[in-house]
Design brief:
By secondary structure, this protein is α/β, with parallel strands linked by helices. The protein has one domain: Vaccinia Virus protein VP39 (Rossmann fold). 35% of the residues lie in helices and 25% in strands. It is built from 7 helices and 10 strands. A 7-stranded mixed beta sheet has the order 3-2-1-4-5-10-9, with helices on both faces. It has a 3-stranded antiparallel beta sheet with strand order 6-7-8, with helices on one face. The longest helix has 17 residues. The radius of gyration is 16 Å and the shape is globular.
Length: 220
């Protein structure tokens, strides 16, 4: 099953809500630190797009005077985002074919390892993010680091304990990819692999302990 089909399925919205209800405190702390980095990284941007917005988890980090748009492949996610949030333009769409003209936004971001859940289409997604970002704009990504599995396994073990996952394993051909019997998978990256994927010079990369890389780059 492709990543797009998996996350577009209606029942996956409930599945993801259950997954996030079981997030261990240590991982929630990392996610909060990530939002703190995002809040600083958007700078003076006034028209922002989040790719893979889910239920709108990041909108709280975006200033009230900023025009925020979120796009996700799952229609049910978008409906839930509209229900949960008092602001934002919520759009159902494919990250490999963003429904926006070139240079529409002055900041585009994709965080919380959303890119790592887009197995096989990562390069297309990055290219689309760059296309819709202003020529002097900023792009922001975050992904799980190559040494994050021990921390993430706390989450996966909890999901197994409550029967959301049956089992989780590392892919034999690519051990950077964790898979489960639900069809879900999650990929991590090392620093150089991540930089090569995004393909911009002079990025600012912050590593949050052994958990994730947070990447910020200005387009020129």
């Amino acid at each position: 099953m492709s990543r797009r089909i998996f996350f577009a399925q209606k029942e996956q919205a409930e599945f993801i809500q259950r997954v996030y209800k079981e997030t261990p405190a240590v991982i929630n702390e990392f996610f909060q630190r990530e939002l703190d980095l995002l809040r600083k990284a958007v700078g003076s941007a006034r028209n922002i797009l989040e790719v893979g917005c889910g239920f709108g988890r990041a909108v709280s980090a975006i200033g009230p005077n900023v025009i925020y748009s979120g796009i996700d492949i799952g229609y049910t996610y978008v409906l839930e985002a509209k229900h949960r949030n008092q602001r934002g333009n919520w759009i159902c769409g494919d990250a490999t074919k963003l429904p926006f003209a070139a240079h529409t936004f002055d900041c585009v971001f994709c965080i919380q390892n959303t890119l790592g859940n887009m197995e096989g289409i990562e390069t297309q997604v990055v290219e689309e993010c760059r296309r819709v970002c202003a020529s002097n704009g900023r792009i922001i990504f975050s992904v799980y680091s190559e040494d994050s599995f021990e921390v993430r396994r706390l989450w996966y073990d909890r999901l197994i304990d409550v029967s959301i996952f049956g089992r989780v394993w590392l892919d034999q051909e690519n051990p950077r990819i964790a898979r489960s019997d639900t069809g879900w998978s999650s990929r991590c990256f090392d620093r150089e692999e991540f930089k090569k994927l995004i393909g911009l010079k002079e990025p600012e990369i912050t590593k949050l302990d052994s958990f994730l890389y947070f990447y910020v780059a200005n387009l020129r």
